[in-house]
Design a protein that fits this description.
Blueprint lengths: L31 E2 L6 E6 L8 E6 L8 E10 L2 H8 L15 E9 L11 E5 L10 E5 L3 E3 L6 H4 L3 H14 L7 E4 L5 H12 L4 E6 L2 H9 L4 E4 L5 H8 L5 E6 L3 H9 L1 E9 L13 H4 L4 E4 L5 H4 L1 H16 L7 E6 L3 H9 L6 E5 L10
Parallel strand pairs: 9-10, 9-12, 10-11, 12-13, 13-14, 15-16
Antiparallel strand pairs: 1-5, 2-3, 4-5, 4-7, 4-16, 5-6, 6-8
Helix pairs in contact: 3-4, 3-10
């Protein structure tokens, strides 16, 4: 059965994922590696656009290039772009067959001749949305996109961190220039990026957070995760509720991933010189914003496309990741994995997200934490 996408999310903007670094193709004649016990590895393959993925066994990866790292994959963080790619609804159309997934954690089993930042046995996070391939027991990544995992962080939690938290960090810290103890309104707050924004705003900036979500269970969950107030959009009017909470003063910053009428309501909920961040369009529509809504309160509307910084401003891109890792190392932020699935259950995981059942990040757990650094 093909994946069933609710019509209102077909236009969701998941374009913030792009190539993390330039892939170096110069062949390597010297690599460091551990013995390989298996001649093949298990991977989930999209053989036909729109059809369920098939778990197959493929031959061991080719010899590494000089600046590549081979990783024994332990966990894959699912991003909405992975699902759209398999459905043929993503900006970059892929030719089948291919393996989706570009955000993984695992252990290094082999490094190219010019790689020095990691060594065999290291626990790492790796990104590569250009080639993807993360839904697999092994993952080849450019060395520039491989990062050590903080000691206290599990590999499952690590796979849930980089994309969502770096997007939220870029939005709040760099783009909104969030200040301590400001008031922040976050929509789609129970999702991976929304929850990361709640975590960052509360625990790094000591802000008052108003979290918007659907349903009483998600509202209760967000309060447990630190939100000061919640708004259930299925029962409450966002603008009226914000007016009530803030006693008419409005919020300093909005981070919206929904678009449509929700974004307009959020802009109207801004206080004087407020900043509205548009990060995605989960509602399925890109709104036309009356410019006078910005003029009336001298407010700003700011677009945030985290992935575009990888090519256009690599220094800012890396800064957002570094900020996240520093906060993780200091245990100031706390990633949340809502659900885990096995590799053989990847189709169920995709549908789980499409049906809006997920809270926080959904992760494919491929190996156990104590699995050795071998293939």
């Amino acid at each position: 059965m093909a994946f069933r996408t609710p019509p209102e999310v077909l236009l969701r903007q998941c374009l913030r994922y792009r190539s993390v670094s330039k892939i170096i193709t110069k062949p390597s004649h010297s690599v460091s590696q551990v013995p390989c016990a298996a001649a093949s590895y298990k991977t989930a393959v999209c053989v036909k656009i729109g059809a369920p993925l098939e778990v197959q066994h493929l031959p061991r990866p080719r010899k590494l290039n000089a600046r590549e790292v081979l990783i024994s994959t332990h966990a894959l963080g699912i991003n909405f772009a992975d699902i759209l790619t398999c459905k043929g609804q993503y900006q970059d159309r892929r030719k089948t067959p291919f393996t989706p997934g570009g955000e993984i954690s695992g252990k290094v089993v082999e490094v190219g001749a010019e790689v020095s930042k990691v060594k065999i046995g290291d626990r790492v996070i790796a990104l590569d949305f250009a080639k993807s391939g993360g839904a697999s027991e092994v993952f080849v990544a450019p060395a520039e996109a491989v990062f050590p995992v903080p000691e206290h962080l599990s590999l499952v939690d690590a796979a849930a961190t980089v994309v969502s938290y770096s997007t939220a960090m870029m939005a709040l810290s760099r783009k909104a220039k969030l200040k301590q103890r400001e008031r922040v309104l976050i929509t789609a707050a129970a999702g991976a990026t929304g929850l990361a924004a709640v975590d960052i705003a509360r625990n790094l900036f000591d802000c008052e957070v108003i979290a918007v979500c659907g349903g009483v269970d998600k509202c209760n969950f967000l309060k447990e995760r630190g939100a000061n107030y919640t708004i259930d959009y299925t029962k409450e009017n966002i603008r009226e509720r914000v007016k009530e909470i803030t006693k008419g003063r409005g919020v300093d910053v909005v981070m919206d991933q929904v678009g449509g009428d929700t974004l307009l309501d959020c802009i109207k909920s801004l206080g004087f010189e407020g900043r509205a961040l548009t990060v995605g369009y989960a509602a399925g529509s890109i709104p036309n914003i009356p410019a006078n809504q910005l003029l009336l309160k001298s407010s700003s509307l700011i677009g945030v496309f985290w992935g575009s910084y990888a090519l256009s401003n690599p220094a800012a891109f890396m800064e957002s990741i570094t900020q996240v890792f520093e906060a993780l190392s200091q245990k100031k932020i706390h990633p949340y994995v809502g659900n885990t699935f096995k590799l053989e259950q990847i189709n169920e995981a995709f549908q789980f997200i499409l049906d809006r059942k997920s809270v926080g990040k959904v992760v494919i757990k491929i190996r156990e934490e104590d699995h050795p650094a071998v293939l």
